């Protein structure tokens, strides 16, 4: 039960941050990505604020063998940079540039601007298609 | 030459404050439950019926709606046409699963864990998205 409350609260705070920073607005995100016309660099402050805050809290978490709710902490990140990682990131970047929206903002904005549900539908189809292809390959 | 948009102190402040909230959510999830706040991974787990993952995704529009209510900001309207949103969503879904993460998992959580993989992924998807925007045009229409 506590896990469910924590995940719901984390989602609410995350969504609030996406709205406050305007990451939920494709015009804002496209402006951040548009270095050849008029560049809006302000989302760099969003990424900076998010990374500094996350880094600080992760540093506190690292000093504990377990999470507050008793879960194991994740293993240290892998250092293997393979083709799958780079190809995946490039495919992801194509979609991100095409719509000016990525998964978290798409869910966050889906009630305010229901047209974003087209993206959410594509996202779910993509995730399911990948899972199907992966199982077929096994 | 890069032309930079005119920005006010408020623009920067809101962008930074929003980032801090995102960091509080990501860091809080790690402290409380030992979990990385990667939204594409959470989406995949939600599709497997994991209740806590579904609740996280439900929380996102609740938080965004609260901010819009409190600040009186109008909902974004500059979305691409439906077909383009669907194609983009499919690419983002496949790419995020193939590359083990999206903007939240790699650019926020991964970089905060000093992961080289996440730094490489973030650079790759940012450069790709910048090229796509440069070629396809500015704000979506």
Distance separating the two termini of chain B: 25 Å
According to DSSP, the number of beta strands of chain B is: 1
**N-to-C SSE string of chain A, H for helix and E for strand:** HHEHHHH
Structural class of chain A: mainly alpha
Which two chains have the most extensive interface, and how many residues on each?
A-B, 116 and 113 residues
Please report the number of helical segments of chain B. Answer: 6
Secondary structure tally: strands of chain A:
1
Shape of chain A: globular
Question: Helix-strand pattern of chain B, N to C?
Answer: EHHHHHH
Q: Which blocks of ≥5 consecutive residues of chain A have pLDDT under 50?
A: none
Terminal-residue CA separation of chain A: 35 Å
Beta content of chain A comes to under 5%
Question: Please, what is the average pLDDT of chain A?
Answer: 95
Which overall shape of chain B is indicated by the principal axes computed on the Cα atoms? globular
Q: Work out the radius of gyration of chain B.
A: 17 Å
Q: Quaternary arrangement of the chains shown?
A: heterodimer
Low-confidence stretches of chain B: none
Using only C-alpha atoms, the radius of gyration of chain A works out to: 18 Å
Key attributes of the depicted protein:
heterodimer; A: 138 residues; mainly alpha; 6 helices; 1% strand; globular; B: 141 residues
Write up what this structure looks like.
- Chain A has one domain.
- Chain A is 67% helix and 1% strand.
- Chain A has helices at 2-20, 26-33, 43-62, 83-99, 103-109, 117-137; one strand at residues 38-39.
- Chain A starts with a helix and ends with a helix.
- With 141 residues, chain B is mostly helical.
- Chain B is 73% helix and 1% strand.
- Chain B contains six helices and one strand, in the order E-H-H-H-H-H-H.
- In chain B, helix 5 (103-112) packs antiparallel against helix 6.
- At the A-B interface, helix 1, helix 2, strand 1, helix 3 and helix 4 of A face strand 1, helix 1, helix 2, helix 3 and helix 4 of B.
């Amino acid at each position: 039960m506590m896990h469910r409350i924590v995940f719901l609260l984390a989602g609410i705070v995350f969504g609030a941050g996406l709205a406050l920073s305007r990451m939920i607005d494709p015009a804002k995100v496209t402006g951040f990505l548009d270095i050849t016309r008029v560049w809006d660099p302000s989302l760099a402050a969003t990424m900076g604020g998010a990374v500094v805050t996350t880094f600080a809290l992760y540093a506190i978490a690292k000093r504990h063998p377990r999470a507050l709710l008793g879960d194991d902490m994740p293993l240290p990140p892998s250092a293997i940079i393979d083709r799958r990682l780079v190809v995946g990131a490039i495919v992801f970047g194509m979609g991100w540039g095409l719509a000016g929206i990525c998964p978290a903002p798409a869910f966050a904005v889906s009630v305010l601007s229901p047209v974003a549900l087209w993206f959410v539908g594509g996202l779910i189809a993509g995730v399911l298609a990948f899972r199907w292809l992966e199982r077929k390959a096994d | 030459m890069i032309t930079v948009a005119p920005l006010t102190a408020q623009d920067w402040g809101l962008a930074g404050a929003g980032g801090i909230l995102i960091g509080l959510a990501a860091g809080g999830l790690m402290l409380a439950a030992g979990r990385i706040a990667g939204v594409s991974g959470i989406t995949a787990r939600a599709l497997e019926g994991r209740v806590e993952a579904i609740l996280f995704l439900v929380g996102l529009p609740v938080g965004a709606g609260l901010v819009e209510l409190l600040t009186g900001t109008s909902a974004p309207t500059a979305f691409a046409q439906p077909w383009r949103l669907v194609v983009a969503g499919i690419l983002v879904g496949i790419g995020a699963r193939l590359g083990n993460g999206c903007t939240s998992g790699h650019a926020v959580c991964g970089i905060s864990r000093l992961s080289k993989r996440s730094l490489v992924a973030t650079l790759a998807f940012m450069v790709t998205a910048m090229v796509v925007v440069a070629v396809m045009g500015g704000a979506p229409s």
